[in-house]
TrEMBL record:
GO biological process per UniProt: inositol phosphate metabolic process; phosphatidylinositol phosphate biosynthetic process; sulfur compound metabolic process
Protein name: 3'(2'),5'-bisphosphate nucleotidase
InterPro entries: DPNP, Inositol_monoP_metal-BS, Inositol_monoP_superfamily, Inositol_monophosphatase-like, Inositol_monophosphatase_CS
Organism field: Nicotiana tabacum (Common tobacco)
Single Gene Ontology MF annotation: 3'(2'),5'-bisphosphate nucleotidase activity
Amino acid sequence: MATFTVSSGTINSLTRTLPLTKNTKPHSLFSLSISLTLKASKFTLRASSMSYDKQLAAAKKAASLAARLCQKVQKALLQADVQSKSDKSPVTVADYGSQAVVSVVLQKELDSASFSLVAEEDSGDLRKEEGKETLQRIMKLVNETLTSDETYGNAPLSEEDVLAAIDSGRSVGGPSGQHWVLDPIDGTKGFVRGDQYAIALALLDEGKAVLGVLACPNLPLSSVASHNPQDPQEKVGCLFYAQVGSGTYMQSLDGSTPIKVHVTDLDNPEEAAFFESFEAAHSLHDLSSSIAKKLGVRAPPVRIDSQAKYGALSRGDGAIYLRFPHKGYREKIWDHAAGYLVVAEAGGVVSDAAGNPLDFSRGRYLDLHEGIIVTNQKLMPALLKAVKESLNEKASSL
Ligand SMILES: Nc1ncnc2c1ncn2[C@@H]1O[C@H](COP(=O)(O)O)[C@@H](OP(=O)(O)O)[C@H]1O
Ligand SMILES: [Mg+2]
Ligand SMILES: [Mg+2]
Ligand SMILES: [Mg+2]
């Protein structure tokens, strides 16, 4: 016989919402409690037995193929002369191409009838007369990438197919059903400089992140701090992935055996290294420096682009990630959903500056208090205190 356990808190909170009167008989309360117990148990069983293995395999394949496309474009971009480097079109080609590849792969691998994708790019500019040449280049690149995987055979996509694949990313997401969330190139500025960038893909189910995949083509497999750029194994890039309740894993982008990763267990903030955006326009470096000073952090900040920061933190390269955008900026869900789950499943904590969890259920934007802070459970109380003090000082100096 199966035995069910349900916390008394669940029953208490359920009974609180029921209309109990003076006339409610003890035996009816008893049967009510039994029926609630069974209902709650059914829910628990369903939630814990939910597996996203099939979606995870599809997401890893999609992100790895998109990474292959981006690597090719970045290589050509870095070899180009100065004049064509200032031309923004290679970046555009890679952004759109990556989005098209991920969309096509997910729809080929999974049930396309219920497919919903919330993604950064749309095809508006490509449908204009001046976008025609760029669209041709994207189509060629997407077809080359897809046929490099033998399972997709030789059925090239038309321009219309590519446009439709990009536009499937127009979903508005929300609190019900399943939605994929994609940033086809996160860290565009890093991509252009030849630095870090990521293909970030997450799955939301009923508003919660349940899968997170980060392909980081320029992130070394060993720690950011200790890696040896001469070692060819260091050049293959990393793939992080997490499924809710199953931990976070990392493998090389060329498919090495995955290893389970965990955030640092450091409890002394003085020894912590902290990450922030490379771009000062994306995060207030002065504010993070004031927070780090309060915590006694000795090392200088590690500034890298994209959600590669979440990946690096999930394996303990650093202990803290601070992100404080300038006033008025609204964060988008594709800039954080995948990174959030990669860190959370590796034992870390991600919250806004007031300690609230991130809420991915409200559509394309995240509504936040001030900024995003990430660290392990031991350091979070001290970090929250330092953040609060620094924000108060900043407010009183205005
Ligand atoms: N003024 C701003 N403040 C904060 N974030 C910004 C910003 N302008 C752009 N961004 C976001 O910062 C992301 C890059 O983050 P990071 O600084 O960690 O590399 C960008 O993602 P894209 O490169 O996908 O557009 C973009 O969404
Ligand atoms: Mg982004
Ligand atoms: Mg992007
Ligand atoms: Mg962008």
